[in-house]
TrEMBL record, chain A:
Keywords carried by this UniProt record: Dioxygenase, Oxidoreductase
Residues annotated as domain Extradiol ring-cleavage dioxygenase LigAB LigA subunit: 27-113
Entries under InterPro entries matching the protein: LigA_sf, PCA_LigA, Xdiol_dOase_LigA
EC class of the enzyme, as a word: oxidoreductase
Classification via Gene3D superfamilies: Dioxygenase LigAB, LigA subunit
Protein name: Protocatechuate 4,5-dioxygenase subunit alpha
UniProt-listed Pfam families: LigA
Source organism per UniProt: Comamonas piscis
Alphabetized GO MF terms: protocatechuate 4,5-dioxygenase activity
UniProt key word Oxidoreductase: yes
TrEMBL record, chain B:
Keywords: Dioxygenase, Oxidoreductase
InterPro entries in UniProt: Xdiol_dOase_suB (IPR004183)
Domain Extradiol ring-cleavage dioxygenase class III enzyme subunit B residue range list: 8-281
Organism field: Comamonas piscis
NCBIfam families with a match to the protein in the record: PRK13364.1, PRK13365.1, PRK13366.1
Database matches in Pfam families: LigB
Protein's UniProt keywords contain Oxidoreductase: yes
GO molecular function: ferrous iron binding; oxidoreductase activity, acting on single donors with incorporation of molecular oxygen, incorporation of two atoms of oxygen
Keyword Oxidoreductase: yes
Protein name (Swiss-Prot/TrEMBL): Protocatechuate 3,4-dioxygenase
């Protein structure tokens, strides 16, 4: 019998389950390596060369170099791990999270100060794509989930 | 005999640590949040525990995908602050309580919970931010936190995470374990992390204040009912990282009234604030009746 995965119908969300974890093992282990300052320096000096030391897919490497976190997540990345790329770049967690929404940094910050994204319209895939002024499913680039 | 005197619940946002470390607590954005912990710091000074049992989640710092323990208890003498990608927080090492921690590990495993025993790990913002919020900055002279801490790391990174019910029952087992320790120690149990937040994808920034406040009400008055809430409700209603809230049920399960209704807890403090970076912040202090 198949495993129950009731979380597959939540918009704009990839739950990091065993399948995602298997897919993203090396991508996430690369992220862990950025907890050492010497590795951060080596990565910053030559991203491609550093990424080539890891058994990641070409797509995962492209997603990291593009800093497209939605794309990274689709290829198995997990946000707690990916946060270390943002930290290496000197980004705040808010900048990282905001980058995945298709909103500008200012608009995202303003939304949070105003109380955050409403849950109304954002519980199920079949609901409309977000409440007015709060795009829920139109992130740009490779990122639309 | 050791005993649990109180439980503390708080979110543990990394940006709060940055605000503290960079001296921004009085900025307009942060002031309302830190004001909400003013009473808490006073309460800590007036009610100093001998040991804090601190339930938190590791954010891919001590545990990578190489090893994913559902529950990991620290039995070490000390833990260093982790480098989460921007250098370690400038806070003192966290001293452990190996004797009580080992006792709890043995007792809880004998009560059928499979704890992973950890003798070496770094602790990230999940553990150090709650300490900063509750204790203030440690004195420069002493260079130490006010008391030893026993870390219990819970996997909320890779699904499936433990159910609310299992966390609640683990809390009950921890209380029994503490109460079977011979030395007379005042132990506080803290549940940290959580409240509405989603850090990923196009739904990032989700905040559900109604759900959060209902969670706080239920946690105080009907924790056994709250323990039955399935994971999917947390994720759908409070965001993908809102699932961290199951950890609060461990602390709540360790309170006296769970097995002795004649001892309802006293709510010493309740606070809720939106936003801190991407998240809602919730906070409670409950003393045993």
């Amino acid at each position: 019998m198949a495993l129950e995965k009731p979380y597959l119908d939540i918009p704009g969300t990839v739950v990091f389950d065993a399948e995602q974890s298997r897919k993203g093992y090396w991508l996430n282990q690369f992220c862990m390596s950025l907890m050492k300052s010497e590795n951060r320096e080596r990565f910053k000096a030559d991203e491609r060369a550093y990424l080539d030391e890891w058994d990641m897919s070409e797509e995962q490497k492209q997603a990291v170099m593009a800093r497209d976190l939605n794309w990274c997540i689709r290829t198995g990345g997990n946000i707690y791990f990916l946060a270390k790329i943002g930290a290496t770049d000197g980004k705040s967690f808010q900048q990282m999270a905001g980058s995945m929404t298709g909103m500008s940094e200012d608009a995202y910050r303003a939304m949070m100060v105003a109380g955050g994204r409403s849950v109304e319209g954002n519980r199920f895939m079949h609901e409309s794509a977000g409440t007015p002024g709060q795009p829920a499913g139109n992130a740009t680039g490779q990122g639309g989930i | 005999m050791a005993y649990i005197s109180a439980s503390v619940y708080t979110s543990h946002v990394p940006a709060i640590g940055v605000a503290i470390d960079q001296g921004k607590t009085q900025e307009a954005y942060w002031q309302p949040l830190f004001n909400g912990y003013g009473y808490s710091r006073q309460w800590m000074r007036e009610n100093p525990p001998d040991v804090i049992f601190l339930v938190y989640n590791d954010h891919a710092s001590a545990f990578s995908l190489d090893l994913i323990p559902t529950f990991a208890i620290g039995t070490a003498a000390a833990y260093q602050p982790a480098d989460e990608g921007w250098g370690p927080r400038p806070v003192p090492p966290v001293l452990g309580h190996p004797e009580l921690a080992s006792h709890i590990a043995q007792s809880v495993i004998q009560q059928d919970f499979d704890l992973t025993i950890v003798n070496k790990m770094d602790v990230d913002h999940g553990l150090t931010v709650p300490l900063s919020l509750m204790c203030g900055e440690p004195s420069a002279q002493l260079g130490a936190w006010p008391c030893p801490v026993i870390p219990l790391a819970v996997n909320v990174v890779q699904y499936p995470v433990p159910s609310g019910q299992r966390c609640f029952n683990l809390g009950r087992a921890i209380r029994k374990a503490v109460e079977s320790f011979d030395a007379d120690l005042n132990v506080q149990i803290w549940g940290t992390g959580g409240m509405s937040h989603q850090l990923q994808g196009a739904r990032a920034g989700l905040i559900n204040q109604e759900w959060d406040n209902c969670f706080l009400d239920q946690l105080i008055h009907h924790p056994a009912t709250l323990a039955k809430v399935p994971h999917i409700d947390y994720v759908r209603e409070a965001g993908s990282e809102g699932i961290e809230l199951v950890m609060w049920l461990i602390a709540r399960g360790a309170m006296a009234d769970v097995d002795d209704p004649a001892r309802p807890p006293t709510v010493k403090h309740r606070f809720y604030h939106v936003p801190a970076s991407n998240t809602a912040v919730g906070h409670l202090i409950l003393e045993n009746g």
